[in-house]
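Structure representation.

___
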Amino acid sequence: MTPRFHVSLFRSPGSKSSSVLLNSMPVGYDIPESTRSDASLEWVTEQLELCDSSHAACAAQGPTTLPKRVLDIGTTENDIIRLYTTKREPDRYVCLSHCWGTHPILKTLSNNLRKHEKEISWADLPKTFQEAIEFTRRLSVKYIWIDSLCIIQDDNEDWREQGSEMADIYAKAYLTIAAAHSRDSRTGLYSTVSPEYNVETLDLSSLSISLGDTDRVYACRKVSHVGRRIIGSVYEQYPVDDDLPLLHRGWVFQERHLSRRVLFFTSQELSWECVESMACQCRGQSAQVSGTERALGVRGASLAGFKRLMRESIDATDGSMKSQAMHTWLTMVKDYTSLQLTYEKDVFPALSGLARQMGKLIGTTYVAGLWDEFLLIGLCWHPDVRTTGGAQLGLRPSIWRAPSWSWASIKTPIDVIKDTRLRDTCQIVSFDYELAGSDPMGELRFTHSVYDGAQAIICSGGKADLEYVRPGVYEREDG
C-alpha cells in the first residue's frame, strides 16, 4: 500500500501579492536541518525574548532562586562541571526533562556525592546530558538541574525532600528542556531533519495568479506536532506525534504542567510551549492561547485547565476557585493514569508537585489522591474500558500503595464523574492515615476510613479492601 501523509502549502514571508488564493495561504518557514543549528538557537532566543517581554502570566511568581543542588556548568566548553550545593541564591537555571530508559544512567549516590561536588567528567555524562549542557551554555545560563544528578538517588529522605520541592523547581526554572524524542540518556537531545521534510518550491507559472518578484509558494510534508488537539482547530489540521517516548512517562506529566515554559526537542523540529502561547519552527503550531481556548483544550484538557488556573489564581479571592480546581484535578488524574511509571510506588511522588500546587486552590486535606471536602466526587472513578479494551481491567499493582477506594489502587487508566452535586449525599465519619515520609503529598503507609451515606456505609483500610467487579460495583476481598 502506498504510504499516505499530509502536505503543507505555504507562502513566503513578506508576500505582497494581490492574489486572494495566495494571501489565503499561511506564511511558512523552512525548518532548519538540525535542532542544533544556529538558526534553531536564534529561534529559541526569539521565543524567550517574546515571552519575557509580552507574557505576564509566564512571569515567575516570587523570587527565582536556585534549588538545593544544581550542576554548575560554566558558560564555555572548557569550564568544569560540578554538582553545586547552593545557598538558595537568586539566579537563572534550566531543567532537563528526559527518559531514564532501561540502560544504567549516571546518578549521584551517597558514595560519589563528594566526587561529583568536585567535578563530573564530561566523558562520564551520557549524550543527552552533554547536549543539554551544551545548549544551556549557548543560552548563557550557568546552571542546569538534572534529576538523576541533583537528587541523591539512594537517600530516601533526600528524595522525599526534593520531591516535595518539585513544584518550585520546575515552576521557577528559566526554561525546561524536554528531550522528547529520546528513549534514554544515550540517544541525545539534538536531531537532524529527514530529507522527506525538505521544502520544495511550486511552479505557478501556468496559473493566472499575480505574483511579485519575491512571492513564492512552497510545499512540504507536514510535520507531526507535540500534543493532541490542544486548541481544537489549530491542532486538528496537523498530524500528531504520539511516538515521543518522553510524553508517555508519568513523572514527565507534572514536569510539563509545572514548567512555565518548555522547549521540546523532537525528531523533526523544536516546539515551544508556555502559559500564553505555543509555537514550532515550521509555524504550523503557532498560536496565542486565549482563556477560552485553554479551557477547551485537550492535551488533555488537564494541561489547558491547569495553566488557566495558575494564571487566574493570581487575582482570585480565597476559595473562589475550589470547584474549578477540583474539576481540573479530576481531569489531570484521568490523564495521569494512562501514563507509565517504572516503579509502582512512585504513583503519588510523581504527582506530588502538582498536588501541592492544586492544594493551594482546593484548600482541603489531601489523602491517597483525593481531597476530603470533595471526597465523594473523588470516589466516583472506574477503570476506563475504552482505553483498556477490557484487558486487565482494574489490575492491581504488585505492592500496596493505596486503599481500594483510591484511583491509585489500580494500575490501569481510569475515567471519572465530575458531578459536584454528589458531595451533599455523603460524609466522612472517621479518617486516619499514615505517611511513609514527611511529604503530605507523597507515599502512604496505611489508611482507614468510614463513610456515612444515604444508602450505605463503607469501611476500608490497609490491604483488606474492596475488589473491583464492574464500574460502580465493588465487593470485599474476603467475600
